[in-house]
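User: Show me a protein chain along with its predicted structure.
Assistant: Here is one chain, sequence first, then structure tokens.
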Amino acid sequence: MRNIRDSCIQFFQNEDIRKEIRDIISPIVDIVYNELYVYLWVICFYNVFLFFILLANLVLILHLIKQAKD
């Protein structure tokens, strides 16, 4: 008796089945991507903005430390 893993592997060995599943899932993935596209860009811009803020804070702290030593 085969286990589920072996059954799935055998099922996906057929190229026609893989193509049909890809054709079925492709529109779903496109819809999800189109819905999340804006949010992904917002997250990317937020991360870049946060990086520059942290970099500016580091420069200011280093400047304050240098002035405190003088």
